[in-house]
Design a protein that fits this description.
The complex is a heterotrimer. Chain A is an alpha/beta fold. Chain A contains 20 helices and 15 strands. In chain A, α4 packs parallel to α10 and α7 crosses α8. The longest helix of chain A is centred in the middle third of the chain and has 15 residues. Chain A starts with 10 loop residues before the first helix and ends in a 31-residue tail after the last helix. Chain B has seven helices and twelve strands. In chain B, the strands form four sheets. A five-stranded mixed β-sheet of chain B has the order 2-1-5-3-4, sandwiched between helices. A three-stranded antiparallel β-sheet of chain B has the order 10-11-12. In chain B, strands 6-9 form a two-stranded antiparallel sheet. Chain B starts with 10 loop residues before the first strand and ends in an 11-residue tail after the last helix. In chain B, about 55% of the residues are buried. By secondary structure, chain C is an alpha/beta fold. In chain C, a hairpin with a 5-residue loop joins β13 and β14. The model of chain C has no long low-confidence stretch (mean pLDDT about 95). Classes of the chains: A alpha/beta, B alpha+beta, C alpha/beta. Chains in contact: A-B, A-C, B-C.
């Protein structure tokens, strides 16, 4: 948000807030321990609003469940925004001091009257109004979301629409108020932190625009870094289709099964000139590979760090000896580097981490001993005296404002890719599972990820002595 | 710039066993006493749970109080005079231990044997144990009605172990009714409320509705009840099986903290490993993410690294 | 909240019983036909969960209608009230009047408790058995002055409850066949000195006008004249001590709540009279219910409570009916509601019925019971004046304590304090029962001696010899005939190691064997222990077992060893139990063992 890709708040803040919005998230089942924090908040009196096409188990705890039509998230958010503005409940002072683009935003949401909102989302205008007022009037409020927001063709707009609400009411940058994407998989956040995204170097340093950072890495690594963004997964498949991408090194991912269009993915992967898969299982993708590198399970057969949804960098440790020929990912990568003529100069995870700390300012203060001692540290943590950052963007409340203002983004409701028919609403979320939008809910052990972890044993739900 | 709020706490001065002690307002007597490195036995107390003060083994004497007070629940007050080990206290601890040991199987309760000796408890003086109940018998007991017997045997809670799923077992012969599992499953943490205390008096028991088997109940197998059980009444099936095979050996086990591999919440796991196999998973009570709790995935979803033949 | 229900369908009768209390379901999520709106919005958060206090009345409705609470009925209750099934089951199984297995629609609960034992209950039960009557043992039904007693309950569309006292095999059989006698009006066998009982038998308990004609509602007007602070001042000056057993100064309790900044405040009248041998609240409510309503209104006015509860024990059908009538009439006449007597005072009363649990007479257990939880006592502190019902400041008073307020407000606290003794002011209601000529409810100023009180009731039966007197009920203390000079006041009984408790004076003569009485008391506490704390849950069992061994003449290691063991159990229960039940569960037995030498040791024999 506003620069760094991470949730703004700590779990603890969810317990100490007055209103919680779970938008496109069934945290009760998908993030059960996060939901413990939600329930602490609820028991302390917080109002819970759940926006989800299905009345999920999370929604059953809600003071208001809003069962919107699939894909009408922006419509709902904009309607809420217009109502807040028309009721005069927006935080004018905060908006003036800490944001830009309000006028344009306000003009854009003007068309989203309550009546229009009801038409778009299916939610009675009355209820939208009530929720809008509650969010705006709350002293502290949190919006949390998961794949119900992000796994859409217009996911970016969805997220921006939610950010707009927080800016409108000043519900960000204060203890108890914030915006929190709940990460679907372990270390999704950490992958981004470490630069495993096509446009950022470790520590969210811009690959193209931040010349200084790039130079810093080049000096440290003694190589030249291409000054342009790489491909993300969709683009990679497009490149395979074009024949521009012929060799692929897949680590701990199973695109042959996890891609929306598996038939296409399968064909393209099969057509590659060289496919290397490094995994703990012989996955469907691995079965297509030219070379399979057996890896150890990163969470219990290796050392390292991960980052969770509250930006907490945490240590994973080795508890078991990996089976057979399996090796720690970091050993494999280091060995590969050496064999390719680039010895990386480190062999343990701590070595790699120490190098990372020297290059990523937001991780600089996180030594292994400190991570151990503090039970993880939330970034940014700039030096070894820094306790880490429970919440982000406190600067927006500084007067005068520190750093750049936070921008509003005028976004509009876009129709879903698949047209909804009258009788398809009930099955829409099932389509979401099958289509580009995977359902966010009802994942238990038996169905987590692509079932690779769970398919080797029976579900605990399987009854009988 | 806004900041993380800080709660102001006053310092309270009180006397414990003749010593002047400073504690923080809002702390319990137990916390103040433990800071002195004095042991007070506890069973139903859990550091992450609301005190129910049901077991009454932590009772202490507070000057001016007609009865003993539960140190686990009673907050310190300025000028309080506390005695943790006087005759009244020792007698009440001895009796509570006798009551428990004569009615419940404490064989897997940590420290029980040591406390029984330390307080001179004689559970045998209530006579031989009455025959165990048949399966389901205690679950059908009607409040306000009991069979008194003739007093020649001591009533117990002994009954067959309940094994109705592959994750964990419930051996209520070992249940001291500390309420911790109910709290962990309920409002303190999991809020699933699959179990509650049912019945009344000596027939009170931990139960699902109408004693439904766990797979038919609301249980989500988070195992947060096992995590807080102080007696081993609730146990990982893996531990239960190893114990029955005579292979459970804590000396040979290592405990390693790591992070759960499933979702992005970042739950801290403690892997209990014996012979390169995970035999149990817990979570540190003092961790800000989990407070000792996990979900079914973190708690039981470790088999995929053990299915060696599959890999 | 997310419940996992069993999706079993309740019968239409079960559904109607639940809906009768809660109204028809509003949404498909609660069991209504699905409407388009149900697929769009739902509100099952705080407000829905706040319905939990309706659990007990709803369970009663099912029990009353069907005769038991089936899994499907419980499931539907849970769906309607958003209560997890395991929790609801835990609550239902806590109460002895609820059945969780099918049983006949008509059931006779026969009192086997100590007062009835002195009046032939044991034989009576045998005769019932021989006659093939289907009956259940019951703890004291609070009909001790007309022992032996039975309560016949018939579930159905028109549920019926019949109290039979004195009960006979024929009357029980007839009642179970639907032929129950009209309930008898309570009788006061004392001509003079009545204050609290002055209207009993004179005023029509079903008529507000009759109550007014006998001086009713003059106290409320006087209270409005005094203002809330004035009322509290008079109550404080009266030195009124609570009559529920703990003898706490009522004025202090009221003052603490009145001053408490947290709102709302609640008033709770504890009418869960279940102490074996006690029947005073029943008689007062059956015969003078408006007095309680008026007294509560004054208490609510003085302490800033707008909401009052009466928690009446479930075994008092007539009292329940009278109280319902009284509250309804008072409401209709503007004596309860939003603007009482045009004074802008708001106060109303909700009635709650217990379901067979002695422990719910403990004030914090009572709160839990009202709130829809198991009737388990809470840890104190916090005390009810700070965190009581629903966690709010709460005045909780016994029926008798509240009744005294009427005279205090009318006469002034100082005048009230002239009655009785220095520390125990006013009069006391005494439940005389057991082996006396005229068992019944008596009122006397504190300071009357035990002997004088017995004389009021005509003494022991002709030709019998007084052996012992149980003061204060099962949680009380046995005294011998040497204690007839004991002055009945809080201070004098305390000094003598006795107690007034709930005002029980139960007399035993030479025809009554002590051992079975003690065993029944032990059984009572084992049955009524809520089971929460170890000293009481197991202690009551071990106490019973030791007494059984003694009574059967098979002590382990000799009588002396057993007595020492019982002494140790007594001490632990007294010192370490959570609440008054456990703390006093060994009192009566202990006093009989030592004061009455119930089981002489080998040396003494």
């Amino acid at each position: 948000m506003f620069g760094a890709g991470g949730g703004t708040s700590s779990y603890q803040e969810i317990e100490e807030t007055d209103l919680i919005v779970l938008w496109g998230s069934n945290a009760r089942e998908t993030h059960p321990i996060f939901f413990h924090h939600v329930l602490k908040g609820v028991h302390a009196g917080a109002r819970l609003v759940v926006v989800d096409p299905r009345r999920t188990s999370s929604a059953q705890w809600a003071d208001n469940w809003l069962g919107i039509d699939v894909g009408t998230d922006v419509g709902l958010a904009n309607t809420i925004a217009r109502e807040i503005i028309h009721a005069g409940l927006h935080n004018r002072e905060f908006i003036d001091r800490a944001t830009t683009g309000f006028e344009e935003f306000a003009a854009n949401v003007e068309q989203y009257t309550l009546e229009e909102g009801e038409k778009i989302t299916g939610i009675p205008a009355e209820i939208i109004r009530d929720v809008a007022h509650a969010y705006a009037r709350a002293d502290r409020a949190q919006i949390c979301w998961t794949l119900g927001i992000t796994e859409h063709h217009n996911a970016v707009d969805n997220v921006l629409a939610l950010i707009n609400l927080a800016l409108l009411c000043g519900h960000v940058g204060r203890w108890g108020s914030g915006l929190n994407p709940l990460r679907g998989q372990n270390n999704v956040q950490g992958g981004g932190d470490m630069g495993a995204i096509p446009n950022r170097l470790p520590g969210f340093q811009d690959l193209e625009k931040d010349h200084e950072a790039r130079t810093k890495f080049e000096r440290a690594w003694g190589v030249e870094i291409q000054p342009r963004y790489g491909w993300h997964l969709t683009q990679m498949f497009e490149a395979m289709e074009r024949g521009d991408l012929t060799a692929l090194y897949v680590i701990g991912e199973n695109p042959a099964q996890s891609e929306a269009d598996t038939t296409r993915a399968w064909e393209l992967l099969e057509g590659l000139g060289h496919l290397v898969v490094q995994d703990i299982f012989l996955t469907a993708t691995a079965e297509l590979a030219h070379v399979v590198l057996p890896a150890s399970a990163s969470w219990c057969e290796a050392e390292g760090t991960v980052t969770n949804s509250e930006r907490r960098v945490q240590r994973v440790r080795k508890a078991l000896e990996p089976p057979g020929q399996a090796h720690d990912d970091i050993e494999i990568i280091a060995e590969l580097g050496t064999r390719l003529g680039y010895p990386m100069g480190w062999s343990t995870s701590e070595d790699a981490w120490t190098e990372l700390r020297s290059l990523s300012p937001m991780h600089a203060g996180m030594t292994y001993p400190r991570l151990e001692e503090l039970g993880g540290i939330q970034w940014p943590c700039v030096d070894e005296q820094d306790p880490g950052s429970p919440f982000l963007h406190g600067r927006l409340w500084a007067d005068p404002l520190e750093g750049p203002p936070a921008p509003f983004h005028a976004v509009d409701q876009a129709p879903p890719v698949d047209e909804l028919t009258e009788d398809s609403r009930a099955t829409a979320t099932r389509r979401r599972c099958a289509g580009r939008r995977r359902s966010t809910s009802r994942r238990r052990t038996a169905s987590a990820s692509t079932s690779s972890r769970a398919s080797g044993f029976r579900s605990p739900r399987a009854a009988g002595p | 710039m806004s900041a993380v709020p800080v709660t102001l706490r006053r310092v309270v001065e009180l006397e414990i066993d003749g010593q002047t002690v400073r504690a923080m307002e809002g702390q319990t007597i137990l916390q103040a006493v433990r800071a002195l490195d004095v042991e007070i036995p506890t069973l139903c107390w859990g550091e992450t749970l609301t005190p129910v003060n049901a077991c009454r083994v932590c009772m202490v004497e507070v000057e001016g109080s007609r009865v003993l007070v539960p140190s686990c629940a009673r907050k310190v007050e300025p000028g309080m005079v506390v005695r943790t080990n006087g005759d009244r206290v020792r007698h009440s601890r001895k009796m509570v231990l006798e009551f428990l040991a004569s009615s419940v199987d404490l064989s897997t309760t940590p420290n029980a044997a040591r406390w029984i000796e330390e307080y001179g408890a004689e559970p045998d003086r209530y006579g031989p144990a009455a025959p165990p109940a048949a399966a389901g018998e205690r679950d059908r007991a009607h409040a306000g009605h009991h069979h008194p017997g003739d007093g020649q045997t001591a009533a117990t809670v002994a009954q067959p172990v309940k094994i109705d799923n592959e994750s964990y077992v419930r051996d209520y012969s070992k249940c001291i009714l500390c309420y911790k599992c109910v709290e962990g499953c309920g409002e303190d943490w999991q809020n699933t409320f699959a179990i509650a205390v049912a019945g009344r008096g000596f027939d009170a028991r931990i139960a699902t509705e109408f004693d439904a088997p766990l797979p038919d109940s609301a249980c989500v197998y988070c195992g947060n009840c096992i995590a807080v059980c102080p007696t081993g009444a609730l146990m990982f099936k893996s531990e239960y099986d190893l114990r029955h095979a005579g292979q459970w050996d804590e000396e040979r086990q290592t405990q390693t903290d790591t992070i759960c591999p499933y979702c992005g919440v970042g739950c801290e796991l403690t892997l209990h490993v014996q012979d390169n196999e995970i035999v149990k998973v817990t979570s540190p009570l003092d961790h800000s993410v989990t407070h000792g709790n996990l979900c079914v995935k973190g708690r039981f979803g470790f088999q995929f690294v053990q299915n060696r033949e599959k890999r | 909240m997310d419940l996992r229900l069993h999706d079993t369908e309740p019968t239409s009768v079960e559904r109607a019983a639940v809906d009768g209390v809660l109204g028809p379901p509003a949404t498909a999520w609660e069991g209504a036909e699905r409407s388009p709106l149900d697929g769009r919005v739902a509100s099952t958060g705080h407000a829905a969960r706040a319905q939990r206090h309706l659990l007990l009345p709803t369970l009663h409705a099912v029990q009353d209608r069907v005769g038991w609470i089936s899994p499907a009925a419980l499931d539907y209750v849970c769906k309607r009230l958003l209560i997890p099934p395991a929790e609801a089951y835990g609550v239902a199984s806590f109460y002895s009047l609820f059945a969780l297995e099918p049983r006949p629609a008509t059931v006779a609960h026969v009192c086997t408790d100590i007062a009835c034992m002195t009046r032939g209950a044991t034989d009576f039960c045998k005769r019932l058995q021989d006659a093939g009557v289907d009956w259940l043992e019951s703890p004291c039904l609070g009909m001790c002055e007309r022992a032996p007693a039975a309560l016949v309950i018939e579930a159905g569309e028109e549920p019926r409850e019949a109290v039979l006292a004195p009960a006979s095999v024929d009357s029980v059989v007839a009642a179970m066949d639907g032929d129950a006698p009209e309930p008898e009006a309570p009788e006061i066998r004392q001509a003079t000195g009545l204050r609290l009982l002055r209207r009993v038998g004179l005023a029509d308990p079903t008529s507000l006008d009759s109550y007014r004609a006998h001086g009713g509602y003059s106290a409320l007007r006087a209270a409005f004249e005094l203002g809330p602070a004035g009322v509290i001042r008079e109550v404080t000056d009266s030195k009124l001590l609570g009559r529920g057993g703990a003898a706490f100064p009522t004025g202090r309790k009221w003052d603490a709540v009145a001053r408490h900044p947290v709102r709302p405040h609640y008033l709770v009248c504890n009418a869960d009279e279940s102490e074996p041998g006690t029947f005073k609240d029943r008689i007062v409510i059956e015969s003078d219910p408006f007095a309680l309503v008026e007294a509560m209104t004054i208490a609510g006015y003085a302490t800033g409570c707008e909401h009052g509860y009466v928690y009446l024990r479930g075994e008092y059908p007539l009292a329940w009916k009278r109280l319902q009538q009284a509250v309804t009439q008072a409401r209709a006449r503007g004596l309860l509601g939003d603007d009482i007597l045009g004074q802008g005072v708001r106060f109303d009363i909700e009635l709650r019925k217990g379901a067979g649990a002695y422990i719910c007479g403990e004030e914090t257990a009572l709160f839990n019971s009202i709130e829809g939880f198991r009737g388990e006592p809470r840890n104190k502190p916090p005390f009810p004046v700070d965190e009581g019902l629903h966690g709010k400041p709460t005045v909780v008073n016994n029926v008798e304590s509240l009744l005294n307020v009427l005279d205090i407000v009318l006469e002034g606290g100082a005048a009230f304090a002239q009655i009785g003794t220095e520390e125990s002011t006013g009069t006391r209601l005494f439940c005389l029962c057991g082996c006396v000529q005229r068992p019944g409810l008596y009122e006397a100023p504190f300071g009357i001696t035990l002997g004088e009180l017995l004389d009021l009731a005509g003494g022991v039966l002709q030709g019998r010899e007084l052996r012992s007197i149980l003061l204060g009920g099962a949680a009380g203390v046995f005294v011998g005939p040497d204690k007839l000079d004991l002055e009945l006041s809080f201070e004098a009984t305390r000094a003598a190691g006795a107690t007034l408790g709930s005002g029980v004076v139960m007399v035993f003569d030479d025809t009554v064997e002590l051992a079975p009485i003690l065993l029944r008391i032990a059984a009572f506490f084992r049955d009524e222990s809520c089971g929460q704390c170890v000293p009481c849950r197991v202690g009551t069992v071990r106490q019973q077992e030791a007494l059984l061994r003694l009574a059967n003449g098979k002590p382990r290691g000799g009588v002396k060893t057993e007595l020492a063991l019982l002494g140790e159990i007594t001490t632990a229960m007294r010192d370490a139990s959570i609440c008054g039940l456990g703390q006093t569960a060994a009192n009566a037995i202990d006093s009989a063992l030592h004061g009455l030498n119930a089981f002489p040791t080998e040396e003494a024999m």
